[in-house]
Every structure is written in C-alpha cells, then in structure tokens.
Amino acid sequence: MTATSNLQELQAIARVLHNLLLDYPSESSLQQLVDDQIAQQWPVLTDSPLNKQGKAALALFATKWDSSQINQMKLDYGQLFFGPGEPKAMLWGSVYMGEQQIINDTSTVELMRFYQQFGISFELKYKQPVDHLALFYAVIDQLLEQMMADPKNNVAKEALIILLQQHMLPWAGRCLDLAIEHAETDLYKGVALLAKDFQSSLATTLNVVPMPMRLFR
Questions:
Q1: Which of 50, 89, 151, 164 has minimal CB crowding within 10 Å?
Q2: Which residue ranges does UniProt annotate as crossing the membrane (predicted)?
Q3: Structural domain of 133
C-alpha cells in the first residue's frame, strides 16, 4: 500500500466517523450504511483485532437492520453520547481532561487557540463545543486532504500531529472504551471499535505518541 492510498483510507474513515458520531441516526442514514455494505467496504488497515471485531459488529447490524429499529438506535446514541441524563461516553474532551469534568473548560479554550493559530475552521449546523470527537474527525479529514494535495505541505502535517498528540489522543481512547462497554446495539459497538482502530492506525502512520495526561473520567 502506498502512503497516498493509506492516507486516502484514513480520510474516508474520518469522514464516515464524523457523520456517524455528530448527530442522532436517521432511517435514511442507517439504510445508506446497509446499502453501501459498510462492513465489507471498511478498510482493513492493520487488520487488528479491533478492526475485525468492529467490522463483525457492523455486519451483524446490517444483517438485522430494518426501519422498525430506528428508535432503538436513537436511544443507544442518546444514552451513549447525548442524553437525557449524563451520557455514558461523553464526546467532549474537556470532560475527561478537566478536573471539574465540564464542557468548554480550559482544554477547549486551548484547542480554539490552536485552531486559530493554524487557520482551521468548520461550519456547524448548531452550536457545539469544538472539542466534540466528531469535529476532530472533520478536522482530520481536512488536514489529510491538504497533505495529499501537496505532499510537501508540512504545515498540515505539523497541525495534524499536534492535534493528535496534545488535543485528541490523550482522552479519545477512554471515550471510545466507555462507548464499547456501554453500547447496547451492534452499530455503536462496532463504530466505537473501528474508531479506536482508526486512531491507532493514524497515530502509527504519523509516528505520534499521545502526550501523557491525567484523565478525570
């Protein structure tokens, strides 16, 4: 596999994960996953146990899916990531990295400064703290696109390495572990397993070691 094809696979995964984790599922979005044969099409990457388990879970979801299950899928998304009540696997980095475990804490402000420094921006359909995991995937998508468009673009590569090392990887694995533990559907268990595999592959590709950081959740 060439370096470019590897980056293309990683970018495609980042885009899919962004869409899957940003908002509640809909009947049409889930049917599209089935029609696209998501389990069969998902890149093998390093063929890790996480990858195999995640693809197996997605295959089970696709086999059993019909529109009568949409409320079950929405309930699972809610209890994991959104509410009502406190979600089991909150998607905001500051909840893990800040002692008070609240959104829009110091780490969120630091991330906003980092985005300003590198000129990174994105449009949001509704107001959302920028350290939402799905938004990290959107930024990864952008930066990988820039790296492939201009392989000499060291600024994009530097930004991606810092993003992973300091702002995302220190906590995202813990979030995904909680999602794997508490997911009640094959869909979101598979998504969390594959997201963890993706982050590991991305870190290996860029030789990134996450900054050691105390987590509070």
A1: 151
A2: none
A3: 3-205
154 within domain boundaries: yes
d(Cα 7, Cα 13) in Å, to the nearest integer? 10
CB atoms within 10 A of CB 117: 10
Burial, 66: exposed, middle or buried (Cβ in 10 Å; 0-12, 13-18, 19+)?
exposed
Between residues 39 and 124, the one the model is more confident about: 39
* CATH (domain of 99): 1.10.3480.10
Name the CA dihedral angle for 14, 15, 16, 22, rounded to a multiple of 10 degrees. 100
Which tokens go with 37?
């044969």
Residue 5 has pLDDT above 80, yes or no: no
Q: DSSP code of 45?
A: T
**pLDDT single digits (tens) 144-192:** 999 999 998 899 999 999 999 999 999 999 999 999 999 999 999 999 9
